[in-house]
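Whiteboard transcription, Tuesday session. T.W. wrote the C-alpha cells on the left side:
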C-alpha cells in the first residue's frame, strides 16, 4: 500500500540503553543487586544476548501483559544469564537451529499457494498458516509435512484468501484505474534522480504512474516475485516529500531500520492509501509466503497491522517521541481486512537500502 512518504536522512536508530547496577557493601559479603527489568527500551541488549547464547536460545519477544523482555533458552545455565540482565527466561524444547531446520522442511514440502511459514518463538514452534482455499490434496500435503515435524510445528487457518494487495493507491499513486501506496522516497547520490519505492507487484503490473492526474514517473528496478519492491523514477512534476502520513498528520522519516533489531510483539505501524495509518504487533520475521497467485516471497515479516487492497507498497514504521521515525518495510499482502482484522506481510526495507547503496532516503 503506497502512501506518499518522503525520504530521510540516514542513521540507525539506537533503541537500546544501558542500565547500571550497583553493588551494596555491608560488613560481610553481599549479593549484587538485581538487574533492572528489561523492557522495550533495551531491545538492542536483548538482541545481542540472543546472539551470544547462540543455539542455547530460541529467540526473544516482548510479553504484552507485563512489557518485559522474554528470552527462550534451552538450559538452566542460559536461563541464569538471562535473569542476570533483567530479562525473563523461558525454558523451551527446541533451539533456534532446530526450529530453522523444521522451517526449511516445511517451506520445501508444504508451501502451497495460500500459505505462509514462520518461526514463532512464543510457542517454540514453526507455524504454517493456510488460507480458506487450501483444501483437498494441498491440505493433505500440508498436514503430512506438519506431522513429520511432530510437536515442533502447527497449522493455523486464516479467515480468508492470502493475496497480494492489488494496484490501488496511497497518498496515492495511480496507474490507470488502479492504484497503490507510496512507500518511501529515495534519491541517487550521483545523478540526483529521485525515486518512489513501492511494492514490486505494483511496479510489475504498471509502467506509468500519476498523482492526482499529474505525471509521477515510470517503473524500474522491479524485484518480484521472491522479493516485493520496485521503484518509480520521478519525472519531476510531483514534488517528493520525505514524510509519512500518520494518525496525527505527517512524520519525517529519519532512516531505514532492520526488523531484526525489533523484538517480536513490538508495536509497529503502517500507512496506506485505502485504510490510512494502522498499528499492530510484529509477530514473525524471515517469513516465506506463497500467495494464491502462486508467487513465492521470502524474507518477509508478519504483523497484525491490518491492510486492504490499495495499501500495497505503503510503509511500515516506528515513531519514537523526541527521536524520530524509522521506516522498516513495505506492505506486500496478507489475509483479512480492517473490519474483521487479519495478518499483513511486508518486504523489509533494509534489503532495498543494501541492494542500492547509491540511493539514500530523502
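and on the right, the sequence the group agreed on:
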Amino acid at each position: 500500500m503506497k502512501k506518499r512518504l518522503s525520504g530521510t536522512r540516514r542513521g540507525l536508530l539506537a533503541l537500546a540503553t544501558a542500565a547500571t547496577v550497583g553493588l551494596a557493601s555491608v560488613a560481610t559479603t553481599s549479593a549484587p543487586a538485581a538487574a533492572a527489568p528489561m523492557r522495550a527500551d533495551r531491545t538492542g541488549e536483548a538482541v545481542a544476548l540472543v546472539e551470544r547464547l547462540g543455539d542455547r536460545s530460541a529467540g526473544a519477544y516482548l510479553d504484552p501483559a507485563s512489557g518485559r523482555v522474554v528470552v527462550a533458552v534451552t538450559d538452566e545455565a542460559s536461563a541464569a544469564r538471562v535473569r542476570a540482565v533483567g530479562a525473563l527466561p523461558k525454558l523451551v524444547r527446541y533451539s533456534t537451529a532446530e526450529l530453522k531446520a523444521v522451517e526449511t522442511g516445511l517451506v520445501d514440502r508444504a508451501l502451497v499457494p495460500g500459505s505462509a511459514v514462520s518461526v514463532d518463538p512464543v510457542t517454540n514452534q514453526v507455524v504454517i498458516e493456510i488460507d480458506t482455499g487450501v483444501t483437498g490434496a494441498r491440505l493433505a500435503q500440508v498436514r503430512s509435512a506438519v506431522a513429520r515435524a511432530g510437536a515442533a510445528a502447527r497449522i493455523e487457518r486464516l479467515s480468508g484468501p492470502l493475496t497480494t494487495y492489488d494496484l490501488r493507491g496511497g497518498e496515492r499513486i495511480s496507474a490507470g484505474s488502479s492504484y497503490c501506496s507510496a512507500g518511501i522516497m529515495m534519491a541517487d547520490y550521483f545523478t540526483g534522480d529521485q525515486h518512489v519505492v513501492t511494492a514490486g507487484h505494483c511496479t510489475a503490473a504498471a509502467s506509468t504512474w500519476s498523482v492526482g492526474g499529474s505525471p509521477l514517473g515510470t517503473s524500474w528496478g522491479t524485484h518480484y516475485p521472491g522479493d516485493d519492491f520496485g521503484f518509480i523514477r520521478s519525472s519531476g512534476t510531483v514534488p517528493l516529500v520525505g514524510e509519512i502520513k500518520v494518525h496525527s498528520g505527517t512524520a519525517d522519516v529519519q532512516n531505514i531500520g532492520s526488523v531484526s533489531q525489533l523484538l517480536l510483539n513490538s508495536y509497529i505501524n503502517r500507512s496506506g492509501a485505502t485504510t490510512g495509518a494502522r498499528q499492530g504487533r510484529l509477530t514473525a520475521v524471515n517469513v516465506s509466503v506463497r500467495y494464491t497467485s502462486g508467487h513465492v516471497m521470502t524474507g518477509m515479516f508478519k504483523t497484525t497491522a491490518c491492510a486492504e487492497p490499495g495499501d500495497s507498497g505503503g510503509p511500515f514504521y516506528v515513531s519514537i517521541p523526541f527521536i524520530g521515525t524509522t521506516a522498516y518495510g513495505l506492505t506486500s499482502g496478507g489475509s483479512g481486512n480492517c473490519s474483521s482484522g487479519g495478518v499483513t506481510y511486508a518486504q523489509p526495507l533494509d534489503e532495498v537500502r543494501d541492494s542500492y547503496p547509491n540511493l539514500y532516503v530523502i
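Someone added at the bottom: Confidence is low (pLDDT under 50) at residues 1-32, 166-170.
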